[in-house]
Amino acid sequence: MENIAEEVLKGNRFALSKAITAIENEYDNATEIMQKLYPHTGHAYVLGVTGPPGAGKSTLTDKLAKEYRKRGKTVGIIAIDPTSPFSGGAILGDRIRMNELTLDPGVFIRSMGTRGSLGGLSHKTADAVKAMDAFGVDVIFVETVGVGQSEVDIVKAADTTMVVLIPGMGDDIQAIKAGILEIGDIFTINKADHDGADKLATELNMMLDLDGETKDWRPPILKAIANQNIGIKEVVDTFHKHHDHIEGNGQLTVRRTERAKNEMLDLLDARIGAYVRHNIVDNGKLDEYVQDIKARKTDPYTVVNSVLQDMLK
Ligand SMILES: Nc1nc2c(ncn2[C@@H]2O[C@H](COP(=O)(O)OP(=O)(O)OP(=O)(O)O)[C@@H](O)[C@H]2O)c(=O)[nH]1
Ligand SMILES: [Mg+2]
């Protein structure tokens, strides 16, 4: 395909698929594709969905996507494959569960691999989001597992982030609370058909009370039974509420500006890193430096200073 970007802009699904593959694998044409797509981004609303493995994130996303379709919106879904080998089986599950959605031309689903590329994943996810945005979907879901730093980085691509929790997590909630309180605009307790949903809601409420004194948005706590389609409309309504809230108080613009800034700095870091590598690692100079540093003939600080001076000439 000659003009992948042009085809994406025309709404060609196959081209969108190729564009995301180029992004994922860092093909040479990825930058050019993004340059052409970028002017056409900024229209989609991006929803982050994160939470522990098996919480029902994909099931929820599937039902939420269908609800958005009912409301006349087109939907993109990016599922970031679980890194853990324990939940690796869910990748196939995701595809099967979301299968009926893939028959709907108003929905585009794509999973992206994390293996071996955690560092670059947030920027690849952000680019995949932009590709879907330029393609023309109204709403984009980004599903990630867990609440570690890499997920936090990934949800930075989202305008509104929902954290999915499940009853019976016991002390786990203590362990992850710092991370989840920070990133959750909305909390959904899924699997509310299991015991302990109310207890979890109470605990979460207490934590949010402690955390939320200075904030003007109190993250709502919702309950859902995703596989029975219960609580789905309420989640979508709450997404809308949060959207209206951050649009009204200017936070949406602030978030998006911050995102543009961080993305540019990340890109710059990556390019500079690649340039440095190319210049001192590939030509074997690094090994010489390391030998000299090890022998205490010089030190890393001096070496870095002189390498930089040489490069910036
Ligand atoms: N009982 C019950 N089971 C549910 C509910 N929602 C989802 N499930 C089931 O929980 C299992 C995991 O659901 P997924 O949607 O794959 O969960 P996930 O969070 O996407 O999982 P990973 O992507 O692997 O982290 C599936 O067997 C679902 O059918 C619910 O509300 N109640
Ligand atoms: Mg999933």
UniProtKB/TrEMBL annotation:
<keyword id="KW-0143">Chaperone</keyword>
<comment type="similarity">
    <text>Belongs to the SIMIBI class G3E GTPase family. ArgK/MeaB subfamily.</text>
</comment>
<keyword id="KW-0418">Kinase</keyword>
<dbReference type="InterPro" id="IPR027417">
    <property type="entry name" value="P-loop_NTPase"/>
</dbReference>
<dbReference type="GO" id="GO:0003924">
    <property type="term" value="F:GTPase activity"/>
</dbReference>
<keyword id="KW-0378">Hydrolase</keyword>
<dbReference type="InterPro" id="IPR005129">
    <property type="entry name" value="GTPase_ArgK"/>
</dbReference>
<feature type="domain" description="AAA+ ATPase">
    <location>
        <begin position="43"/>
        <end position="187"/>
    </location>
</feature>
<dbReference type="Pfam" id="PF03308">
    <property type="entry name" value="MeaB"/>
</dbReference>
<protein>
    <submittedName>
        <fullName>LAO/AO transport system kinase</fullName>
    </submittedName>
</protein>
<keyword id="KW-0342">GTP-binding</keyword>
<dbReference type="GO" id="GO:0005525">
    <property type="term" value="F:GTP binding"/>
</dbReference>
<keyword id="KW-0547">Nucleotide-binding</keyword>
<dbReference type="GO" id="GO:0016301">
    <property type="term" value="F:kinase activity"/>
</dbReference>
<dbReference type="InterPro" id="IPR052040">
    <property type="entry name" value="GTPase/Isobutyryl-CoA_mutase"/>
</dbReference>
<keyword id="KW-0808">Transferase</keyword>
<dbReference type="InterPro" id="IPR003593">
    <property type="entry name" value="AAA+_ATPase"/>
</dbReference>
